[in-house]
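A quick word before the example. In earlier lectures we treated sequence and structure as two separate objects. From today on, think of them as two lines of the same record. Here is Transmembrane protein written that way.
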Amino acid sequence: MTLAMLLPFTIVAMVTLIMSVVTYIGTFDHVTTELGSDHYAEKCPEFLSKFVPESFTMPMNTLVNIGYIMVGAYYSAVASVRSKQQVFSAQDCFMFYLFNFGAAFYGVIQTLRILTQMHKFAVMDQWYTLPLFNFVFIWSKSLTANPQPTQSALIMALSLTSYCLAVWTEIGFEIALAFHIFVAVIGGVTAYRKFPATSAPRTFFGALLSCVGFVVFKLLDLELPKYHSLFTFISGHFISKIADILQIYYVNVYFEALTLHKNKLKAQKSD
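And the structure line, produced from the sequence above:
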């Protein structure tokens, strides 16, 4: 890990630690989550169940989480290469590192949820989704308005606090998530309007379609096996995670295009 990566990694790790402590002390013990194999369509094949630990009952839904870490590592490396090419500033790299370290941590949290089926990890899985979507809005603001760090920290704090809706109503998380998706889309569109990179619309719709796939296939998880037994192995939940990983990938591609366009315009003005 380079020195430039150390600060964003520390920030993500500290936020994750704070969220973990808040969850561990029981703040969200009454939040409704889905636990147990009954809530998942995937079943471990008989030939495999004899050779794996008892907790490894959903191999596809477990292993797919590596994708979050791979995308996070890949685009952190891309940001470093862009920096060496002098087409990304230190601030540009900082934003890429923050988002992608967050994505990698999210992959670990989801793995722990699948393996343990513990309520606290299920809460962390839900809760962690919100700051990831919120960061897309902050990222957009950093391109268009260059907000102060305290402003970004306040926006993130409000995002984290919004999970308290899940305590007050069973659909509180869904309400908060819908709002975060809406704000992320608005932020992405606003950033594009200021820096209309040619390739950006295609990747924007790729991210949007992946987001829809993430939601829809997760909802269809228990319905798809009614049509074919294949969906007890390649389940709707597994496909939704593939869509989620693609969503993170497309967000990176989108902001890479906008950032390059912004810096190109800046270079032209300075000439």
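Notice the following. Residues 143 and 191 are 7 Å apart (CA to CA). We will return to this example when we discuss secondary structure assignment.
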